[in-house]
Amino acid sequence: MNLKEWKPIYNEIMDDFGFSKENDLKSAYLLKDIIKNTGNNIELYNLENIIKNKIVYIFGAGPSLKKHIKSYKNIINSEKEKDNIIISADGATKALLEENIIPNIIVSDLDGDLTSIIERNNNGSIVVVHAHGDNVEAIKKYAPQLKNIVGSSQFPEEIENLINYGGFTDGDRCCFLAEHFNAKELILCGMDFGEYTTKYSRPNLKEDIEKADPIKIKKLQYAEKLINWLKENGNSNITFIQ
Ligand SMILES: Nc1ncnc2c1ncn2[C@@H]1O[C@H](COP(=O)(O)OP(=O)(O)OP(=O)(O)O)[C@@H](O)[C@H]1O
Ligand SMILES: Nc1nc2c(c(=O)[nH]1)N=C(CO)CN2
Ligand SMILES: [Mg+2]
């Protein structure tokens, strides 16, 4: 999705949630400056090399996540040629690591389980760090500590060193990223949307799966809508794992 297509969708989302566009821009500039000062970003051709022509498994943090990790393992064990990669959306990273599955790329606005993300980053996973108006403190604290990052913004303007291929939540932004770099196929796992979420998405839940709060439910509605947009308007073949 280009910025011209993203802008009206972005405006609708920001108005709907009452989020501040000004704060989004501030956060984006903060991340841009951190990248400039630390030089901890990687060139985008690295993402292209990882994603292009690959089968991309994208893991979200919905109630089916653990079941879908099992399905993924079965598929991988029965395949001879492994031309697939994994992109995990934020909180899903922890669940993957629990099952010894290593994401190649993590897409995060740094409100997931930071221990898992930092550990994986130290061991080679690229982190696409997303700046928005409500994660300024997390950007300040964690972005300088990470290496091999790609900066990301939702503000609908070109900003040096930051990508914006459309998308809102970490999960749907994984899909826009894979589409942008010409993945062969996208296979979605743990992407239930709906009204229930998991402790991987919300670490303070008492149960493994609970009814999501109204804001989360609305975020998930946009995530689903955006993925449907991609199905209709993108080039990628998008399916859900069984
Ligand atoms: N039922 C679900 N519960 C949680 N995540 C889901 C669900 N279905 C799909 N997902 C996708 O998995 C991703 C998991 O990311 P996570 O919830 O950790 O971060 P997030 O996008 O930053 O959300 P939030 O801003 O609510 O913390 C979501 O962004 C969403 O796109
Ligand atoms: N300003 C703002 N932007 C967001 C937010 C949020 O809470 N505030 N949450 C998102 C979901 O991952 C994505 N973008
Ligand atoms: Mg997040």
UniProtKB/TrEMBL annotation:
The keyword Lipid biosynthesis does not apply. Residues 34-195 form the 6-hydroxymethylpterin diphosphokinase MptE-like domain. Keywords: ATP-binding, Kinase, Magnesium, Nucleotide-binding, Transferase. It catalyses: 6-hydroxymethyl-7,8-dihydropterin + ATP = (7,8-dihydropterin-6-yl)methyl diphosphate + AMP + H(+). It holds the Pfam family MptE-like. Its EC number is 2.7.6.3. It comes from the Archaea. One of its GO terms (biological process) is thiamine diphosphate biosynthetic process. One of its GO terms (molecular function) is kinase activity. Catalyzes the transfer of diphosphate from ATP to 6-hydroxymethyl-7,8-dihydropterin (6-HMD), leading to 6-hydroxymethyl-7,8-dihydropterin diphosphate (6-HMDP). PANTHER family: 6-HYDROXYMETHYL-7,8-DIHYDROPTERIN PYROPHOSPHOKINASE. This is 6-hydroxymethyl-7,8-dihydropterin pyrophosphokinase. It comes from Methanococcus aeolicus (strain ATCC BAA-1280 / DSM 17508 / OCM 812 / Nankai-3). The lineage of its organism: Archaea, Methanobacteriati, Methanobacteriota, Methanomada group, Methanococci.
